[in-house]
Amino acid sequence: MPEGPTIVLMKEKLSKFVGQKVISVEGTVKIDYKLITNKKLNEIRLFGKQAYLIFDKVSVRIHLLMFGSYEIHEQTKPYRNLRIGLTFKNGKALFFSCSVKILPNEILKTIDWEADVMSDIWNPRKAKAKLKENPEMMVCDALMDQNIFSGVGNIIKNETLFRIGVQPESRLGTMPKDKINDLLSEARNYSFDFLKWKRENTLKKHWKAHQKKNCPLCGKPLARKITGKYKWRSFYCETDQNFF
C-alpha cells in the first residue's frame, strides 16, 4: 500500500495542474464527469494516504489503496485499470486501480488535518491525547490508525518500532512515557526519511527491520508475525525491541 510519503511525491507531480481547467474526463469510475469538466483545479490537499483535488464546489478524493498507481502525461497501463483520467491543457493525470470519489467541499471541514504526520500542522499533542485514551491498544494498531497517525503504513510502522526499540504488540498503557514520546517523534521523522530515500530511489537499502531476515544489531533472526486488529505483518527483534 502506498504510504504518506509516496502521496507527497504524487502531489508534487500533480502541482503543475493547479490553476488549470479540466478539459475532459475519462475512465471506468462511475461518477458525474460534468461536475469537474471545464472546472478549474484550485488546490491539492493531502490527508495521509488520500489526495483531495479541490474544485470550486466539489473535491475528487483519490486513494491508491493496496496496488493503485498514477501516471502523468503518457498512459502505459491498460485502460481497464484506469479509474479516472483528467486532461488539462498542459497534460494528463491518470489514476489506476484506486478508489475515486467526488465529494462536496463541506467534507473538507470534517477532516482532522492535524493528524497527518507529514503536514506542517501535524499536532503531536493531539496525537498523544488520542494514545492516552486507548491504553489497551497495541502500538502496532496505534501507528496504523489513520485518525492518529495519518499517512503511516506498514513500512513506517515496522521501521519506527525498530528505531524506538518497542515490540509491536506492546500496549500503549504500559509503555513508558519516554517511549510514547519517541513514538510520536520517530513516526514523523521516519516518514520524512522515507520521502528522502524514495526520491533517491534508495528506500529499501535503508530498511532495518521491514522484510529483513536478521536484526542488524544482534544478528538474530527477526520475528515475523501478523499482529494487531489490522492484521498487518510485523518484523521485529525479540532481543533489541522491548515488550511492554
TrEMBL record:
Name listed for the protein in its UniProt record: Endonuclease
Presence of the UniProt keyword Hydrolase in the record: yes
UniProt keyword terms in alphabetical order: DNA damage, DNA repair, DNA-binding, Endonuclease, Glycosidase, Hydrolase, Lyase, Multifunctional enzyme, Nuclease
GO terms classed as biological process: base-excision repair
This protein's record includes keyword Glycoprotein: no
Reactions that this protein is recorded to catalyse: Hydrolysis of DNA containing ring-opened 7-methylguanine residues, releasing 2,6-diamino-4-hydroxy-5-(N-methyl)formamidopyrimidine
Family: Belongs to the FPG family.
Naturally occurring in which organism (per UniProt): Epilithonimonas hominis
Domain Formamidopyrimidine-DNA glycosylase catalytic: 2-103
Domain of life: Bacteria
Alphabetized Pfam families for the sequence: Fapy_DNA_glyco, H2TH
Source organism phylogeny: Bacteria, Pseudomonadati, Bacteroidota, Flavobacteriia, Flavobacteriales
GO molecular function: damaged DNA binding; DNA-(apurinic or apyrimidinic site) endonuclease activity; lyase activity; oxidized purine nucleobase lesion DNA N-glycosylase activity; zinc ion binding
